[in-house]
Structures are given as C-alpha cells and as structure tokens.
Design a protein that fits this description.
The chain has 363 residues and is of the alpha+beta class. Helices cover 43% and strands 15% of the residues. It is built from 12 helices and 12 strands. A hairpin with a 5-residue loop joins strand 6 and strand 7. Helix 2 crosses helix 5.
Amino acid sequence: MEKRKSIKTSKKSKKSSRNASAIATKDLGRWKPIDDLALIIGIQQTNDLKTVHHGTKFSCKFTHQEIQARWYSLLYEESISRIAVAAMRNLHPELVENVQARALYSVAEEDLLGTIKSSENPTLETFQELLDKHSSIFYSARTAKALQNHWLSMKQYSLLPDQVVKPLYTSTEEQPLTFSDAEDCLVDGDLNEVRDDALEIELALSDRRKKIEIRHLENELSRWSVLVDSLTGVGITPEFDNQTLAVLRGRLVRYLMRSKEITFGRSTKDGTVDVDLSLEGPSLKVSRKQGTIKLRSNGDFFIANEGKRPIFIDGNPLLSGNKSRLSNNCVLEISGLRFVFLVNYDLINAIRHESAKTTSPLN
C-alpha cells in the first residue's frame, strides 16, 4: 500500500510540474527573450513602466497593461521567471549587444550630458572623457558615439539645461489670423469666377454624350430578354403574359424570362448578365456568371451551374459544371438568395403545338 501511494504521489508531482511548465510556456505568448531583456534594462534605467512603454522598441506592440503584467510575472512567478532567464542566457551575444545599445537613458545620465552646454562643439574625445570620469553612472554598454548622438538629440529638441524655449509669437500683432478674421477680410466681389470658354465647351460635349447614352439605353429597353418588376408596390402585375416563358420570382423582385436562354449572376463594370441577382439582395458570394437557364425543344427547362458555389434546387445541391432539370414551382437557392421558378405552360404548349405544325425545333 505504501508503495502504491508513493507511486501515485510521484505521478501527481510529475503531472503538476508538467502543468506548471505548460502554463508558463503558454504565458510567454508574444513575449520573446529580447523583449524580456529590453524590459528589464528599461526598468533598471528609468524605474517607470510608462517611460518603458513609450520609449522602448519591442519586437511587437504591447500595451501598458501587458508590460505591467509581464513585469509582475517576472518578479513574482517563479516558473515564468525561470524560463525567461534561461531563454535570455541562450541569446546570441550580438542580439544582447543590440538590445543594450538601445537602452533608455536615465535621469542621472542626461544630467551629466547636460553639463555640456549647447553653445559648445564637443568632440568624441569630450564624451569619452565624460564616460571615463563617470563610468559608474553611465550604463555599461554606453559608448562615446552613443553619448554624442543622444546629446545632439537633446540639443535638437531644446532639452539641455542652458536652452530656453522661445514663444512662437512675442506680440499679438505677430499672431496668425483666425479663420473668422480671415473670412471677414474677404470681398465677395473678388470671388466671382472668370468664365472659362474651354471648360464650358467641354461640359456641353459631356452633357451631349450622356444624353445620347441615355437615349440609346431607352431604345434598348424593348429588346431586353429579362424584365425586372418590383413586388413591393400596391398593385402586383399578373405572373405571365403572352411573351413570358417562365418567371424567376424572389422576395423583392421577379425576373421574366422572354428568351429561350438566359444567363444569371452578378453584373459588374466588366460584364453584364441577363439576370442580375444583386437586385434581390446581398450578392458578394454570387459569381459574375453563376449559370444559365435554357429551354429545350421538348419544352423542358434546364439549369447549368457555371459558378464556384453550388446551387440548391429544392434542397438538393447542383455542383459547378453540372446541369439539372427545372420543374414548375421549384425553389432555387443561390448563395443565400431564394427564388421560385414558375413555368408558363400555356405559352410552352402553344409553342410546342406551333412547332409540331411546322416541324421546326424551338431552338
């Protein structure tokens, strides 16, 4: 019994250690060893998490809350701290040098750099002497060139103690006009536009071209093989007339099939189809040419799927490249848009009877 208990306890301890390591590695998340090193160096230099958040460049963007949580994890969670320290020790020396070279400057370091006045022209030797004299204050990775560059940045942004930031405007006369004052100075008579004859001619030609295009479209209305009628009005027109072979009826619109073969899909600038399904509803998933509906010589309607997505006919999928027969009152579902297909059997029978007399096929 004692052996069994010892085996069980050892198994439990192994499982707990595994779980702890798994939690620790999972908590690492986006944090990389170079990020932990940069965080530790930044805190040592500034003792301020906000300054580290704004001034340290990490491998990816972290929020202030994420940086604070990571710092507390490194301080108080032994499993995470142990893994992070081991990962930092395995970093390549060049990566470590790169992180140390970008370390933030402490207040004491900037105070020492401020002892060099902005009116002077210090050389590298000046900064090397300053670095040798105060080696205990400057960070161990600092070089004379790095000190010179940071001093020039402080001078550029007027951060040296002997620099005084001058106000932009010393008197009220030098202040720029506000928008309302400038508007009061405008004279309405000076705002009259000069007539541009070339522009007027161009606008007249453009207007003429638009009118010709509108007239051409009006003339083409009678030749359209598919008519779209809105069903949202008070009066609803009859389903069929003496020219309609079939109707594809949706929730908002209906499409009247007046030719023996029509194409349906989504019309774009590059090409149009006979039946534009975008008039019924959202059609982003509808192919530009989703398929065709064709009337055969025996009076049957067949649908061909030429799009990427399947078409459902009474719940049965019709895959791309396949054809299927359409029956009267069947339900078509095309990328979430539902239609009822209705056949005008009176016209079909009349055409079939006429074709039997002349012995000529319908198509």
